[in-house]
Structures are given as structure tokens and as C-alpha cells.
Amino acid sequence: MNTERTVHILGAGFAGLQAARAVLHKDRSAGVTIVSAVPYATMLPALPDILTRRVPPGAIIRDLKEIFSRYGERVSVVVAEITEIDLEQRTLRDTLHTEYPWQTLIIATGSTPEYYGFSQTKNLQQLDTMENAEALRQEFHHRDGTAVLVVGGGYTGLEVAAGLRVGEEKHPPITVVDVADHILPFLPERRRQAILRYLVAMDITVRSGVALQEYDGTTAILSDGSKIENVLVCWAAGMRGTRTEIRGTVGKTRDHRLHVASDLTLPGYPQVFVAGDAAALERDGQVLRRAVNFAFYSGRHAGRNVVRLWRGRARKPFRPVDLGWVIPLGRKSLGTVFGVLPVGGRLGLRLHYLMCGFRHFGVTQTLQFYWTALRLRRRVD
Ligand SMILES: Cc1cc2nc3c(=O)[nH]c(=O)nc-3n(C[C@H](O)[C@H](O)[C@H](O)COP(=O)(O)OP(=O)(O)OC[C@H]3O[C@@H](n4cnc5c(N)ncnc54)[C@H](O)[C@@H]3O)c2cc1C
């Protein structure tokens, strides 16, 4: 492998994988070292399907070595959880204190749950990784007569609540609490009311202006003094940037995403790029929401800029395009495409599965998602 032209990519999600592909395609002599906490890539938007079982779990992940097998020795995959990024010494350090020196680095570590000071996190269930989604499902099956409390009335919280309702035969009480006055506050009132009616029809209770205060694994105490016994709590209250320690001078947003220059480099570190959720990507001065499309295109852009850097060419600014969003909510969906067109129902669900297929990391997995999108007519309702 050409060590002069080797980029280390930390994180193998949408951004990291696209960055790797861009480098490998743009420079045929370049090498890539992918450092990832897990040996597979995960289609995160499909994690609610661990609950609904509309797609088999095997279709949600793909082994990293398999993804890059065609590149032979140009790609090496290191499975390690990095606890420290040293920007001055140019090293990564993992949980076993092994050091990995790098010349060029792309940070693509995605997001991690934010607990807002809530300390009893040990017993919380989550839907942020494949492992946690499977654990949530298993725990739900394992516990008899349990109620479910979902903390957070954003997309992920509602996806968990709706996913448990449509995917499972059990019909436990499901409550969603959110500390804000409304769920999905950015939606127009009419659409929010429609979602609320849909949740009520599914027998899901929504309580706004309420926070979780205590949870010992069995009993939850809420900020209004109420108590829920024998309850499984799923935390979906928010996400933040990486917890990995960064030695060097970096700027962060309130939710710990890294400020980047327009060419996606870290200011002051021309050899370091940041892409995907880890970066505070901006458009018109506004930090963008976390989304697959922004991660995918920023990763690709960072990879291309790495090659421009190696060739001594000017790096190009990243210009994100917002294609819209669709969130599956059990049998329905919620979304807006091209910034103006609202979509919902089965059409939105179908778009969601088509998009998961389109952005997937392998042909078999892609076909499984396309097949799911096609089958929806018979399966939904
Ligand atoms: C349940 C859920 C549903 C979602 N639904 C949608 C949706 O419908 N549409 C949409 O657009 N977006 C959705 N998102 C958001 C979307 O998945 C993210 O915006 C996207 O995955 C970001 O891509 P990324 O490459 O930046 O990070 P990720 O895909 O999160 O990948 C980051 C990778 O870095 C690795 N990593 C992190 N830290 C370390 C470390 N210290 N050491 C080693 N490896 C590390 C992780 O293991 C992971 O593999 C959803 C997210 C979740 C959790």
C-alpha cells in the first residue's frame, strides 16, 4: 500500500464508506484504512425494522471486508473503538491503548445518544445501533406484562413506539413523553394533529411537557410525579456528536458536532476532514439536520478533496442539496420531499424502503429493500 497516499477513515457509516469509495476511485494508487467500532456497516434508518421485522435483520447490515473485497490490499479494515484523536501527533488511540498513526484523516463518527444529564442510563434501551435495537427487541419479548415508555417525541421515539405496535403481537401500554410542549415542533399544526390522531388510533399515549426523572430498570418516575411500574424505557431523547476525546483545537456546536471549513477540513488542520453527522454541515448559515443524504454526499466530497489535497489542487467547497426526508411510522409515514411536497401513508413508506435500498452497501441488501417496498401493498394495513 502507498503510505504517502493512505487516508485513515474513522467510522464506517454512510459518510465513511462514501469517502473511502471516492478516494479509491479518484486515485488508483491510494490506500484506505477504515477504523470502525463494529465489523459491519449498518443501514441505520432501517433499525425500526428490527421491531417490525418487515426486512430481515441480515439485510440491515453488511460486513465491511465484504464491501471492500474487490479492492484487495488497497483497503484495510481495523475493528477498534477509538477513544482519542490526537490532531497534533497525528495518531488515533483505541480502548486497548493501541496507537494508529495517520497522515490524512477523515472523521466520520456519526452521532451518539445525548442524555442531558440523566445519569441512570444503565437500564435504558435504545435504537441507535444494530446491537441495541436487537437488545431492545429481546428485552421486550423477555419481560412479561411490561409497559413501554419512550422518552423523546422526535422521529426516533415515534418510530420505536409505532414499530413496537405494528411489529409485535403483544399489546402493552405504550407511552411517549417529551419535555417540550409539542412533539415534532417543526411540523405545521395540521400535520402534527394528524400524527397525534394516528398515534391515538394505535393506542399510543403521548404526554408533552414531561421528562423522565428516575428509572431503576423496573419503575419510572416522571417529572409530574407520576410513576409507571414494570416498564421498559427506551431513550430516544436526542443525539450529539462524538464522545471521543480530541486533542487539538476544534470548535463544536452545542450538540458537539465539529465546525468545519467549507471544504470540510477542520480549521487549522488541512490534513483532517470531517463528514456526515460528526460535522456541523451548514447551508445558508444554518446547521443541517442529521440525515443519510448529507452524510453520503459530504463523505464523497471529503474523499474527493483528500485526493485534491494530495495532488496539490484547490479543494472545493461542499454545497449540500436537501432532497427531503421520510420517516416510517408503523403502517404510515411522514415526510417532505424537495423541501415542499408533503408525503405520507403507504407512498411515503414505499419511498423510505426504496431510499434504504438505493443507499445500501450491497446488491443483495438493496434488492431485499426494493422487494419490501414492492410488497407493501399486501403487507401494510
Ligand atoms: C433509528 C434511526 C433512524 C434514522 N432514520 C433516518 C431516516 O429515515 N432518514 C435519514 O436521512 N436519516 C435517518 N437517520 C439518521 C442517519 O442514519 C444518520 O444521519 C447517518 O447514519 C449519518 O451517517 P454517518 O456516516 O455520519 O454516521 P453513522 O452512519 O452513524 O456511522 C458512524 C460510524 O462510526 C463508527 N464510530 C463512531 N465512533 C467511533 C469510534 N470512536 N471508534 C470507531 N468507530 C466509531 C460507528 O460504529 C458507525 O459505524 C436515522 C438514525 C437512526 C439512529
Kindly describe this structure.
The chain is of the alpha/beta class. The chain has 3 domains: 6-37 and 80-111 and 241-310, 3-Layer(bba) Sandwich (FAD/NAD(P)-binding domain); 130-235, FAD/NAD(P)-binding domain; 324-379, no CATH class. Helix content is 29%, strand content 27%. It is built from 9 helices and 26 strands. The protein has helices spanning 14-26, 48-52, 64-67, 130-142, 155-167, 189-201, 292-310, 345-358, 363-379, and strands at residues 6-10, 31-36, 40-42, 61-63, 75-79, 82-86, 91-94, 99-101, 104-107, 112-113, 147-151, 174-178, 204-208, 212-215, 220-222, 227-228, 231-235, 239-240, 245-247, 265-266, 269-274, 282-283, 286-287, 324-329, 332-337, 341-344. A 6-stranded mixed β-sheet has the order 5-2-1-9-21-20, covered by helices on one side. Strands 8-7-6-19 form a 4-stranded mixed β-sheet, with no helix packed on it. A hairpin with a 4-residue loop joins strand 7 (91-94) and strand 8. Helix 8 (345-358) packs antiparallel against helix 9. The mean pLDDT is 94. Bound molecules: flavin-adenine dinucleotide. Flavin-adenine dinucleotide is lined by residues 10-16, 35-38, 44-45, 47, 81-82, 108-111, 127-128, 156, 242, 244, 276-278, 290-293, 295, 325, 327.
Short note summarizing the structure:
The model has no long low-confidence stretch (mean pLDDT 94).
Beginning-to-end CA distance, first to last residue: 53 Å
Strand content: 25-35%
The total count of helices amounts to 9
Helix vs. strand class: alpha/beta
The CATH H-level homologous superfamily of the largest domain? FAD/NAD(P)-binding domain
> Which regions have little confidence, pLDDT < 50, spanning 5+ residues?
none
The CATH topology of the largest domain is FAD/NAD(P)-binding domain
Computed over alpha carbons, the radius of gyration is: 21 Å
Mean of all residue-level pLDDT scores: 94
* Name of the CATH class of the largest domain: Alpha Beta
* Hetero compounds: flavin-adenine dinucleotide
Mind describing the biggest β-sheet? Answer: 6 strands, mixed
Number of domains: 3
How many strand units? 26
